[in-house]
């Protein structure tokens, strides 16, 4: 698509807005490259991915981009075999973690909604959990390597810690010995070596190496000879520590290099997902919907707002084109919104064809165009010595050369800037030529000749921007099918122009022209109402169809549940009767055995009578069970609107909405459903029956697996970190650990403070402290458990 139109329609400003929602600069670069796609399939697919991103944001919350940065430079260095810095490795691990978590983020149960396009994108992610864990285990911060990175490093740091303790003891002893020669009774460091601050006049009293002096020269910093060997040993250990760190970084960098294809692929997918979710976040913030894209040249935009105008003040605009007519000529007063209408139509098409959702109502339709041409605004060029008319005509010549049936053309004030008669004639000729090419055209004008052209030409329609003569203000509403009335006489009268001047002006205009203007006014009034009713009816029809389908599905489901309940009740009743019959038969059998033992005839007669009664009762119970007729309360003779009654067939209370009709049926509200039932099927409302509720027992399942001695919270926000640390402390306590480490990194200290606040109140914590040298320093909190 031509860059000129993208610039005129301010698509660049939309991209700048979307950039605000990205996480990485790589995502911003993808937005910079965004432009309308070359075919309708790509446009629909990228629009679908934006819809899916918005649905995921709504249903699953923020995507797992925590700790993700632009690491293209680090990956590039790793691919060349270079050794990476700790911060670069840490960011690569964060990216790998984000990619792995995306697999979990988009996962769903079989019966749940799928996310086809984003799932296909995430299919290419290769989880590298082992590499990710190795980096997080070895590196604690931007410039800090963990003691756990290797056993050699752990031993070196432990030796270094012991050696430093020995030196400090030795130095403290020397301070006591040389206290009279020192400026202060404390030691200091110069170049990683322990030194004493000796007064200049006593420098001979302390044998050693001079490393530095104060700015005044009064103090010399001397390393006593007895410390030289110890300091040398510390220096040697520090060099070994540095070499081990370089080896660890080289080893981790080599592992990244070995997996360079997967790392590069995962990072590219994360950048693309960042780009996609930025589009989804923008759609959410701007209250956008996904339009339907067709390739038939049909446009039907419903209540759209220009995306760069404040939504609180922007007036919704509806516009359609492509079915009954292919060209639209918009007339109306200046500042009435004609140019905004043009820009809105053009910009929304560019957005939709670039895979973005648009700020318009649901069911809006845009068409796929290979080109959107726009001739809008004052393009007078001082450098080229071109007038406004010449500049516009140069642009129009270019449009005529390139436009075809797959083009949308937007003309603002076509033919303006020259003699009105010639300009109008040119405008009509240009529109007619492009119409014959089957282009889709929206043009604004002040020329009456173009109104007449639209009235008498097939596939061309008039439109106007509404103007309120009473308030002398435009309403910014677009009225299709009605040419704009100039309203010059009415506005002049409102502004105080004498009536005799207006009368003279009217006499100078042909009577046919005045009648034409009056006809326009009449048509405008009638069409506003008709258009509003038609569009509202269409929207309500679509919503009603959707609701109908939804409730039909619920009713079908309800009927299924009801039938199953009835069958189950019948089965249960028959089972109870069968057991009762078996018990009765056993009783009768026992009775006959007793008869044999010798009872009188009266006793036998009484037994026979009881047996007959028992048989009758069983038969009646069986009959009731088969009919499944239960006494659910008193039968009603009449009901009132709003009365609460009981409906046995649904086993719930309902509200009466209407009196019985001639068929004896009433309409009732059952939950969200309105249904018609027979009056005789209703019963007087009774107290709520006590339903037995099955209480799911919660079983405490102990996690008996081994619990690690530390937990890494870097890259998490405060809430997630506190939750993770709390759960980890519970596991560590159950696992019998006495002391654990919580790695939160140094950073700004926000995460550390949140963890410390949680530890103060935690029931398993005995005491806690910041890590010492070799334990991770202030980037780690060591917790002692009860």
Task: Give a quick precis of the structure.
This protein is of the alpha/beta class. 50% of the residues lie in helices and 16% in strands. The longest helix is centred in the last third of the chain and has 86 residues, at 511-596.
Could you walk me through the main structural features you see in this protein, from its secondary elements to its overall organization?
With 786 residues, the protein is an alpha/beta fold. The protein has six domains: 3-128 and 259-285, MutS, DNA mismatch repair protein, Chain A, domain 3, CATH 1.10.1420.10; 151-245, MutS, DNA mismatch repair protein, Chain A, domain 3 (Orthogonal Bundle), CATH 1.10.1420; 292-486, Rossmann fold (3-Layer(aba) Sandwich), CATH 3.40.50.300; 541-627, no CATH class; 644-684; 710-785, Ribosomal Protein S8, Chain: A, domain 1, CATH 3.30.1370.110. Helix content is 50%, strand content 16%. It has 21 helices and 25 strands. The strands form seven sheets. The protein has a six-stranded mixed beta sheet with strand order 12-13-14-10-15-16, with helices on both faces. Strand 22 (710-712), helix 20 (718-734) and strand 23 (739-743) form a beta-alpha-beta unit. Helix 6 packs across helix 8 (129-138) and helix 14 (420-436) runs parallel beside helix 15. The longest helix has 86 residues, at 511-596. The two termini are 69 Å apart.
